[in-house]
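Re: the 459-residue chain
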Amino acid sequence: MVKRYAVILAAGQGTRMKSKLYKVLHPVCGKPMVQHVVDQVSKLGIKKMIAVVGFGAEQVKEQLGTRCEYALQEEQLGTAHAVMQAAPYLQDLEGITVVVCGDTPLITAETMEALLEHHRAAKAKATVLTAIADDPTGYGRIVRNSAGHVEKIVEHKDANEQEREIREINTGTYCFDNQTLFQALTKVTNHNAQGEYYLTDVIEIIKADGGIVSAYQAPSFDETIGVNDRIALAEAERVMRERICRQHMKNGVTIIDPACTYISAEVTIGRDTIIYPGTIIEGETIIGEDCSIGPHSEIKNCRIGHRTSIRHSVAHDSEIGNDVTIGPFAHIRPLSNIDDEVRIGNFVEVKKSTFGKGSKASHLSYIGDAEVGADVNLGCGSITVNYDGVHKYMTKIEDGAFVGCNVNLIAPVTIGQGAYVAAGSTVTDDVPGRALAIARARQVNKENYVDRLPGKKKS
């Protein structure tokens, strides 16, 4: 089998993005653009993958890690010059090399595999990935000969009236016979207005040397979008989001309004789960089957069991079990662990806490740095007072405890198994199991108090 290699062009600064963040690291559906590209290229059975980096090189290396080898393009002198930087890694090898830009996050492994297969079948030395554009203005046009091979690529500014009518455009993704590519690169010059070395010149050189240059048409123009500014970034986000939602729906997930649902690329969702509009699901979130998520909820890096409902709420970096009900307007902060059959109600905030099976905090509570056992009831207004201005302290509430309304638990403190805490208490000492704690001032009624106030007449 012919060996395959890849060159990822990721050295451009992206000045039109007007951003401090290096262009190819801008996320699309929660994942950097260049990571999308590398993930898809990795499915092609690639033996060597070279990322050509320049601006922000260290950040790109940190993102991609050991999945690539790296070639540094210190000066950005054009696309051919960028590919030349990969010569020390590839120039003596036999095989086929795919060249793809790191700012094309929508490209799929299926399309690149079809490009490679077409290249092999056509016995081509170079094959251009093309697309049909509704508005090809600004793109290089593909001019084919009678055999269907590429006669030339004409830049928009150089095209005549007839050539400008062509809607098939050059996407900037190619595959080459590897040694032919690097031999042709040595012949590329920068004798042009920009003083740059263009990869399209390699196509002309290969044709002049008698090599076949073919073209394979991508199934959709959207897949080939290159992101150079925030407008294109938003369009790529839209297309990717639509693609992700469609795949989840094919897998048995109901998404009520895909256009108003935002799901990151790495999310896993079980069948028969329903996602309501305005919901954002990010990171490496895993959601089980038969869940109800949303509307207007934000889930990030959570693991959620089966048959769980989350409405109008936020949950980050936490584990949530089966048959849990959360919301509306609850906040599950990082490092929380919510066991099965728990109820977290409206305006409840949980932070770095565990809830045992069947426990509930139904209203208006803050539970932070706490270990809550099973079958615990936390009444409306329950607060774990965990911070003294310097340190955080733990509150432990053991199985079966009942905490009444408007209770402050001053940590560190333990409420024993089956204990009761009376409403309105401020608890500073441990409560033994099965005890009743009352920590509030005794009520005193002052008879006829109002009558003694100045200016008040007796009724």
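The chain has nine helices and 39 strands.
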